[in-house]
Write a structure and sequence with these properties.
About 50% of the residues lie in helices and about 10% in strands. The protein is built from six helices and two strands.
């Protein structure tokens, strides 16, 4: 095998990686897998049907962000015990155009 070649990402189709993600038994494992590369992060977001978020921040900006990032979400749990969902000045970044689609 050639050193430095990304065999997994060049060989495995999205459908197979999604099936692997669906069979992971813990959220912490799925979160760790999503840190491997942007493709895996995107696939993990696509495969998520339930998310838990903090209750702070602008509701409109949060709903818009969640709808773009997690396209298959069926359940959203709002937990007041979680830390801040969005940066305090997220809305100003949003309005100024710093936050782009796909973020």
């Amino acid at each position: 095998m050639a050193r430095g070649h990304d065999w997994i990402n060049t060989t495995l189709p999205d459908e197979l990686l999604l099936e692997i993600f669906r069979n992971l038994d813990s959220k912490s494992t799925r979160d760790a897998m999503s840190l491997m590369c942007r493709r895996w992060l995107s696939l993990e977001r696509f495969s998520s049907d339930t998310i838990r978020i903090g209750s702070s921040g602008s509701p409109e900006a949060l709903v818009d962000l969640l709808a773009r990032r997690f396209t298959n979400v069926k359940n959203v749990y709002i937990d007041e015990r979680l830390s801040v969902s969005l940066p305090v000045d997220f809305v100003s970044y949003w309005d100024m155009g710093f936050v782009k689609d796909g973020v």
